[in-house]
Amino acid sequence: MVKLTEVEDEHFTTEKPVPSKDSLLVSDNEDDDDYTDTESEISVDSAYDGESETLYQRIVALKDMIPPQSRRRIVGTVSSLTSFTKSTFSFSGKALWVISTSAFLLGVPWALAFAEEEQYVQMEREQGMMRGANEMLTPGADAAAAALGAANPEQKSQAAL
């Protein structure tokens, strides 16, 4: 078991003189302003190698600076955001799957039927244009045949043979 003992620094244990009311910021010892503790073990014997420490190790070391309540709140927030993000991506993936398969199952047959209908319409246009061209070449032939067919349907069937 480790037993902790608090060791106070000499700088904090010595009593400082209380300034008088007349002096505002006057110090008896001018060296107190630039005081540094040069006898500490850290400054003399340091085995710390900052070059070999990774960023992850530095972040983990900073963990102790944050109070436990704040850490719990941060961890809770991060875990809820992570859960929300995972569920959103999962739902989006499933919705995309449903939409894409529905489009293939319903859209492809519709597109094929639409293309076939367009072909029929195009063929009818071409036939209409051919009739119009024939009408221009022989202007009275169709009208005479139509009049003849209306007058005598038997002659029309014989003329066609």
UniProtKB/TrEMBL annotation:
Instruction: Please provide the Gene Ontology terms (biological process) for this protein.
Output: intracellular protein transport
Pfam families, alphabetized = Tom22 (PF04281)
An example GO CC term for this entry is: mitochondrial outer membrane
- Name the predominant localization: mitochondrion
Q: Which domain of life is it from?
A: Eukaryota
Keyword Cell cycle assigned: no
Give start-end positions of Acidic residues composition bias: 28-41
Q: Which UniProt keywords apply?
A: Membrane, Mitochondrion, Mitochondrion outer membrane, Protein transport, Receptor, Translocation, Transmembrane, Transmembrane helix, Transport
Record region (Disordered):
1-41
Subcellular localization, as worded in the UniProt entry: Mitochondrion outer membrane
Membrane topology recorded in Swiss-Prot or TrEMBL: Single-pass membrane protein
| Alphabetized PANTHER family for the sequence | MITOCHONDRIAL IMPORT RECEPTOR SUBUNIT TOM22 (PTHR12504), MITOCHONDRIAL IMPORT RECEPTOR SUBUNIT TOM22 HOMOLOG (PTHR12504:SF0)
Task: Spell out the family assignment given in the record's similarity comment.
Answer: Belongs to the Tom22 family.
Protein name as catalogued: Mitochondrial import receptor subunit tom22
- Give the species: Talaromyces atroroseus
